[in-house]
Design brief:
single chain, 273 residues, alpha/beta, TIM Barrel, 2 domains, eight-stranded parallel β-barrel, 11 helices, globular, binds 5,10-methenyl-6,7,8-trihydrofolic acid, binds 3-methyl-2-oxobutanoic acid, binds magnesium ion, Pyrv/PenolPyrv_kinase-like_dom
Length: 273
């Protein structure tokens, strides 16, 4: 038995994810940022948990992903890792902790792996961050790429509109995907690009391609957990399918509790000592 496997549960590995692409089994991926949610989504059978820097929006209430720090990502990641028995845990390296300096990129990746116990890291970009990606991979840390709408460069673009609609940008994205594959990335996320381009990328690289707003012709799908649960407010892009209305469920529960406290219905005799 491998040192990190718990009884009777076969952990997801990069090797298993590669096999899934090869046999056409779609890969399921969701974000999680804390122990309680990660426990539930792992037990439900999700293949990959992403500790996304979307924690900056969803957990901390920032407008962008830029402010979240490496220490904060490690805090979220370690909470998730403690919950997980089967899923493969990937952690976003935050803005400013890998771009432009491959030694810092390696240091950031090693801190994440050592201090959280996660299984891989994710970085945004292609050719521009090639050295950082290679350096992290050379230390034996699996790297997931992220192309298309890359939220850490939001101020370069100014909007969250669909990416790579123009021929030149589409060509660069395809080249970037091939660069990431050549570097040795184990998978690539494609965010908010035309379905036809995502299909081309998934067919052009051997590694799994996981889409968010990238159409159906890719090897897997990812969503932000709080969006698909209907907890997030006022975020309804076309690519989001909402699987629950937890905002309503939670509001009802909170209102009922408040009512019971005010009415002195709670606690009753059997709830008291
Ligand atoms: N809650 C949440 N969900 C996400 O999917 C997510 C985050 N946060 N934070 C980090 C990034 C940012 N992402 C985004 C952000 C905006 C759109 C988007 O489509 N926004 C607008 C359209 C904007 C426009 O067309 O100019 C929308 O329709 O809601 C998509 C993905 C994905 N990530
Ligand atoms: C949207 C996904 C891919 C992400 O990077 C995040 O949640 O931070
Ligand atoms: Mg992210």
């Amino acid at each position: 038995m491998s040192v990190h496997s718990s009884a009777n549960i076969k952990r997801i590995t990069t090797h298993i994810l590669q096999e899934m692409k090869e046999r056409g089994e779609k890969i399921s991926m969701l974000t999680a940022y804390d122990f309680s949610m990660a426990t539930i989504v792992d037990a439900a059978g999700i293949d990959i948990i992403l500790v996304g820097d979307s924690a900056s929006n969803v957990m901390a209430g920032h407008e962008t992903t830029l402010p979240i720090t490496l220490d904060q990502m490690i805090y979220h990641a370690s909470s998730v890792v403690r919950a997980v028995k089967r899923s493969f845990v990937v952690v976003d390296i935050p803005f400013g902790n890998y771009q432009g300096n491959s030694s810092e990129a390696l240091r950031s990746a090693i801190r994440i792996m050592k201090e959280s116990g996660a299984h891989a890291v994710k970085v945004e970009g292609g050719a521009e961050i090639k050295e950082s990606v290679s350096r992290i991979l050379s230390a034996g840390v699996p790297v997931m790429g992220h192309l298309g709408l890359t939220p850490q460069s939001i101020y370069k673009f100014g909007t969250y509109t669909v990416r790579a609609k123009e021929e030149a940008e589409a060509k660069k994205l395809l080249e970037d995907a091939k660069i990431l594959e050549e570097c040795g990335c184990f998978a690539i996320v494609l965010e908010k690009i035309p379905a036809s381009l995502a299909k081309k990328v998934a067919e052009s690289v051997q590694i799994p391609v996981i889409g968010i707003g990238a159409g159906p012709h890719v090897d897997g799908q990812v969503l932000v957990m709080h969006d698909m649960l209907g907890i997030t407010q006022e975020f309804k892009p076309r690519f989001l399918r909402q699987y629950a209305d937890l905002q309503q469920v939670m509001t009802d529960a909170f209102k009922n509790y408040i009512r019971d406290v005010k009415n002195k219905d709670f606690p009753n005799k059997s709830e008291s000592y």
